[in-house]
Design a protein that fits this description.
Oligomer: single chain
Strand content: 15-25%
Helix content: 40-55%
Amino acid sequence: MSALLNITEPNNNTSNDNDFLASLTTDATKKYSREQIAQLFDLPLMDLLLQAQTIHRQNFNANEVQISTLLSIKTGNCPEDCGYCSQSGHHRDTTKLQAEKRIEVDKVIAAAKRAKATGSSRFCMGAAWKHPSAKDMPYVVELVKEVKALGLETCMTLGMLDTEQATQLADAGLDYYNHNLDTSRSYYEQVVSTRSYDERLDTIANVRNSGINVCSGNIVGMGESRDDRIDWVHELLKMPKAPESIPVNLLVPIAGTPIGDRVLAEGQLSVLEWIRTIAVTRICCPSSYVRLSAGRESLSDSEQALAFMAGANSFFYGDKLLTTGNASQSGDDRLMRELGLTKQFAAPRAPKQVPVMDAMSGHQSQVVLAE
């Protein structure tokens, strides 16, 4: 009997974990130290999930999810050499990806209408560019305006942006701009060499300063260590404000890419470690949307349920994410019914307004800027 009693007695680690959990806060302005982030990663998984779900419920409707649809508006021949990406022109001889030019505006709008009809609240558009050129800007600005006119939130990922380009997109009404950090600063050089980590941070700062919501996440499972995942979360907390949307991608290894080939040969990251990363992100960024993106198509229903339990509350609809597969929409609808999840309604940014005073009467009013 004494042996059985000893099995249930708490050990020192459990006591330390409980003390640490009791010290956590749900204050969205809290900046966790790197040491505290590491402590979160080391918690027993059930304790971590419970804490993440508790914080999630204090900041969001418990069973509501935001749904986005992603469309590649220009595919392939990207000048960047990202080691995981089939769209890189550096890997086209091995990935055999067929490049495509910019999609016509009417075809993009037709895809946005289909996305809205199936329940997406946000339409995301991605182009395989290092950065948009001057001749590309009228095209992307038109897309933002046309998609917003449908009542959808808009998001774009077009590569690096300078201050002027960010302002143009903000004036067009863009809701979110995606620019992932991908990984930690120290592991970054193992992923890409044609763009620096600071250049990524500069684009994020330009987006933030323009008034557009920031969407910035990572890709786990590229061969990085847990320390790199800790450093990535810490990097988010170094920003003046955490991104409003944080995709936590699980690498889909693509044959013919340097990182994809290595992971296919050496083995993929545990799904539970990915879920652990989602939970830590939720705790450290309590008011941000945490999105399930790449890698979800390979998960079981139970694994996806754990990801939602970890605090994820956003995901992509549709059978394709740029060039990689995604979970089927019918499967997503079935899973949401089984889990009791409901779709969030779109809430696009209001049109940009300026104060105008009538010279004769002195009456002041707000006028929407001409588009």
